[in-house]
Amino acid sequence: MPSEFELIDRHFARPTPGAVLGPGDDCALLQPTPGMQLAATTDMLVAGVHFLPETDPERLGWKTLAVNLSDLAAMGAQARWVLLAGAFPEDDEDWIAAFAKGFFALAQLHGVDVVGGDTTRGPLNLCVTALGELPPGQAITRSGARAEDDLWVSGTPGLASLGLAHAQHKTQLADDLATTCLEALRRPQPRLALGRSLRRVASAAIDVSDGLLGDIGHLLERSKVGAEIRMDHLPPLPQGADPELARACQLGGGDDYELAFTAPASQRPTLAAVAAVLKLPLWRIGRITPAPGLRLLDEQGQELPLPAKGFDHFHAA
Ligand SMILES: Nc1ncnc2c1ncn2[C@@H]1O[C@H](COP(=O)(O)OP(=O)(O)O)[C@@H](O)[C@H]1O
Ligand SMILES: Cc1ncc(C[n+]2csc(CCOP(=O)(O)OP(=O)(O)O)c2C)c(N)n1
Ligand SMILES: [Mg+2]
């Protein structure tokens, strides 16, 4: 096994054209674009908690970065720099090489520089700090939703957790659907372009990591408002899956990394154009209410029972 410093040099220290100084010194040196604000976020992935220990390392590398870039996307930030702190099991340089391959593939796709980190031996644990830029005043926070705003979600929430249920043998999906759902679980697409398009369009946004209703609940709480969600406005459930499980995954499954956001009704034409340009479906699933709380309605406007809350590390679902 190579030394710690050989590992860093071989796998993690790559050119950083967007930094003053990248990996190799005690700190990286970064020069933000003059006049821009920095957006900073960190998320950790722990084997057995955030991913199955046998997950393919290349996909895990991608996902480790994706879940962090997703938080930048939710604020409308342009991703610029990341630091990667990892505890890796010893004696498997091939594993580390594959992990780095997946991580850097996504970094390159979004023009993000890996400017530093930390590499230790230990139980597999991955922590990224991501930094992005925003024009001052244009960040999309969780707290800006207003009564009568529309409530939107991107993409197809629920596929990732359906994939997890399949991987854990809790359900058996047909081959094509299993491939789609496992891809959603292992290779989420951080919605950075969508987030940037939502600047000055959305009133509030959050990325859906813990489950659609749970994360919308966080946004509502921060905005001190409520919402009604129309079940018949949600994206169609995937064909061939157990409909009850598919619905539970859609509403509460987590691991989606789509964006949920609110916007005044006047933004509907803009959002239709954004969806067309990005080739990403945007679903208008409900509206914000002045009264707090989340209500789920059927097509007749009748209230339906709310399923279990979103993912919480310290409470069983
Ligand atoms: N240990 C901590 N110290 C300070 N702030 C924290 C800590 N853990 C989480 N937070 C903050 O609490 C908020 C909610 O965290 P989290 O649910 O992990 O958000 P996200 O889904 O965006 O990752 C975030 O603003 C995060 O920065
Ligand atoms: C092995 C395994 N078990 C359970 C899950 C489901 N899961 C784990 S963490 C999580 C929520 C997201 O993680 P968190 O640390 O809350 O991310 P954050 O909200 O901070 O971005 C979900 C849905 C999973 N992906 N893999
Ligand atoms: Mg977090």
Automatic annotation (TrEMBL):
<feature type="binding site">
    <location>
        <position position="210"/>
    </location>
    <ligand>
        <name>Mg(2+) 5</name>
    </ligand>
</feature>
<feature type="binding site">
    <location>
        <position position="43"/>
    </location>
    <ligand>
        <name>Mg(2+) 1</name>
    </ligand>
</feature>
<dbReference type="GO" id="GO:0009228">
    <property type="term" value="P:thiamine biosynthetic process"/>
</dbReference>
<dbReference type="GO" id="GO:0005524">
    <property type="term" value="F:ATP binding"/>
</dbReference>
<dbReference type="InterPro" id="IPR016188">
    <property type="entry name" value="PurM-like_N"/>
</dbReference>
<feature type="domain" description="PurM-like N-terminal">
    <location>
        <begin position="24"/>
        <end position="133"/>
    </location>
</feature>
<comment type="pathway">
    <text>Cofactor biosynthesis; thiamine diphosphate biosynthesis; thiamine diphosphate from thiamine phosphate: step 1/1.</text>
</comment>
<feature type="binding site">
    <location>
        <position position="71"/>
    </location>
    <ligand>
        <name>Mg(2+) 4</name>
    </ligand>
</feature>
<keyword id="KW-0418">Kinase</keyword>
<dbReference type="GO" id="GO:0009030">
    <property type="term" value="F:thiamine-phosphate kinase activity"/>
</dbReference>
<feature type="binding site">
    <location>
        <position position="207"/>
    </location>
    <ligand>
        <name>Mg(2+) 3</name>
    </ligand>
</feature>
<dbReference type="Pfam" id="PF02769">
    <property type="entry name" value="AIRS_C"/>
</dbReference>
<feature type="binding site">
    <location>
        <position position="43"/>
    </location>
    <ligand>
        <name>Mg(2+) 2</name>
    </ligand>
</feature>
<feature type="binding site">
    <location>
        <position position="42"/>
    </location>
    <ligand>
        <name>Mg(2+) 1</name>
    </ligand>
</feature>
<protein>
    <recommendedName>
        <fullName>Thiamine-monophosphate kinase</fullName>
        <ecNumber>2.7.4.16</ecNumber>
    </recommendedName>
</protein>
<comment type="function">
    <text>Catalyzes the ATP-dependent phosphorylation of thiamine-monophosphate (TMP) to form thiamine-pyrophosphate (TPP), the active form of vitamin B1.</text>
</comment>
<feature type="binding site">
    <location>
        <position position="118"/>
    </location>
    <ligand>
        <name>Mg(2+) 1</name>
    </ligand>
</feature>
<keyword id="KW-0479">Metal-binding</keyword>
<feature type="binding site">
    <location>
        <position position="255"/>
    </location>
    <ligand>
        <name>substrate</name>
    </ligand>
</feature>
<dbReference type="InterPro" id="IPR010918">
    <property type="entry name" value="PurM-like_C_dom"/>
</dbReference>
<feature type="binding site">
    <location>
        <begin position="117"/>
        <end position="118"/>
    </location>
    <ligand>
        <name>ATP</name>
    </ligand>
</feature>
<feature type="binding site">
    <location>
        <position position="209"/>
    </location>
    <ligand>
        <name>ATP</name>
    </ligand>
</feature>
<feature type="binding site">
    <location>
        <position position="26"/>
    </location>
    <ligand>
        <name>Mg(2+) 3</name>
    </ligand>
</feature>
<feature type="binding site">
    <location>
        <position position="71"/>
    </location>
    <ligand>
        <name>Mg(2+) 3</name>
    </ligand>
</feature>
<keyword id="KW-0067">ATP-binding</keyword>
<dbReference type="Pfam" id="PF00586">
    <property type="entry name" value="AIRS"/>
</dbReference>
<feature type="domain" description="PurM-like C-terminal">
    <location>
        <begin position="147"/>
        <end position="296"/>
    </location>
</feature>
<feature type="binding site">
    <location>
        <position position="41"/>
    </location>
    <ligand>
        <name>Mg(2+) 4</name>
    </ligand>
</feature>
<keyword id="KW-0784">Thiamine biosynthesis</keyword>
<feature type="binding site">
    <location>
        <position position="142"/>
    </location>
    <ligand>
        <name>ATP</name>
    </ligand>
</feature>
<dbReference type="InterPro" id="IPR006283">
    <property type="entry name" value="ThiL-like"/>
</dbReference>
<comment type="similarity">
    <text>Belongs to the thiamine-monophosphate kinase family.</text>
</comment>
<feature type="binding site">
    <location>
        <position position="26"/>
    </location>
    <ligand>
        <name>Mg(2+) 4</name>
    </ligand>
</feature>
<keyword id="KW-0460">Magnesium</keyword>
<dbReference type="GO" id="GO:0009229">
    <property type="term" value="P:thiamine diphosphate biosynthetic process"/>
</dbReference>
<feature type="binding site">
    <location>
        <position position="311"/>
    </location>
    <ligand>
        <name>substrate</name>
    </ligand>
</feature>
<feature type="binding site">
    <location>
        <position position="71"/>
    </location>
    <ligand>
        <name>Mg(2+) 2</name>
    </ligand>
</feature>
<feature type="binding site">
    <location>
        <position position="50"/>
    </location>
    <ligand>
        <name>substrate</name>
    </ligand>
</feature>
<keyword id="KW-0547">Nucleotide-binding</keyword>
<dbReference type="GO" id="GO:0000287">
    <property type="term" value="F:magnesium ion binding"/>
</dbReference>
<keyword id="KW-0808">Transferase</keyword>
